[in-house]
Amino acid sequence: MDSLINYARTLPRQRPRPVAQVEPHRPEAMFIACSDARVSPALLTGARPGQILELRTVGNVVPPYRPGRCCSEAATLSYALGVLAVTDIVVCGHSHCAAVGIMRRGGLTTATFDTWWWLTRTKGRARPAPPPATPSEVSHLHAQLDKLRSYPAIKRRLAQGRLRLHGWYYDLSTGGVSTLNPDDNSLGPL
């Protein structure tokens, strides 16, 4: 923690301009990623502050759309589309995802009950099984994209051509980022 505090203390000296001159918040994209500390959307994309709007959840989970039952993820999606007018949403899964492992193993323990509950209640519709060489996290990533498509504002913007959805997969062991083919479970070059 000391290194984080020391860096934060030097931040005012590192700012390129006073806060009063900062541009309006107009992110190019929304990035939905796992809350795993090894996954950093800004590092993966090289984004500068304000360039991407980040939504971090355990397992990069997007809850199903439920009218009248708001949650922080749905509120953030609504804000991104309605106020910030983002035109691209990236959902980024990753290898060695403990959350997906909990779902796969049914890892209910006293220590992980809330996580297990969140993951099983927001699981989504399963996709066809991926080829054996494809990690199980890819199927989970497909499910999150499917749930995004069920939100009326997203469905409408997709139909109007005003929004694009992207599925990315980050391999922690190689540092490589792949893109998800929207038609099947294959991963390809970004």
Task: Characterize the structure shown.
This protein has 190 residues and is an alpha/beta fold. The chain contains seven helices and six strands; from the N terminus they run αβαβαβααααβββ. It has a six-stranded mixed β-sheet with strand order 2-1-3-4-5-6. α4 packs across α5. The relative contact order is 0.15.
Supply the key terms:
190 residues, alpha/beta, 7 helices
Give the fraction of residues assigned to helices. 25-40%
Q: Any low-confidence stretches, pLDDT <50, length ≥5?
A: 128-133
Q: Could you tell me how far the N terminus lies from the C terminus, measured between alpha carbons in angstroms?
A: 34 Å
Number of helices: 7
Main pleated-sheet profile: 6 strands, mixed
Tell how many strands the DSSP assignment holds.
6
- Kindly estimate the percentage of residues that lie in beta strands according to DSSP: 15-25%
Structural shape: globular
Assembly status: single chain
Q: Please give the order of strands in the largest beta sheet.
A: 2-1-3-4-5-6
Mean pLDDT: 82
Structural class based on helices, strands and sheet pairing? alpha/beta
The run of helices and strands is HEHEHEHHHHEEE
Q: Report the radius of gyration as a whole number of Å.
A: 18 Å
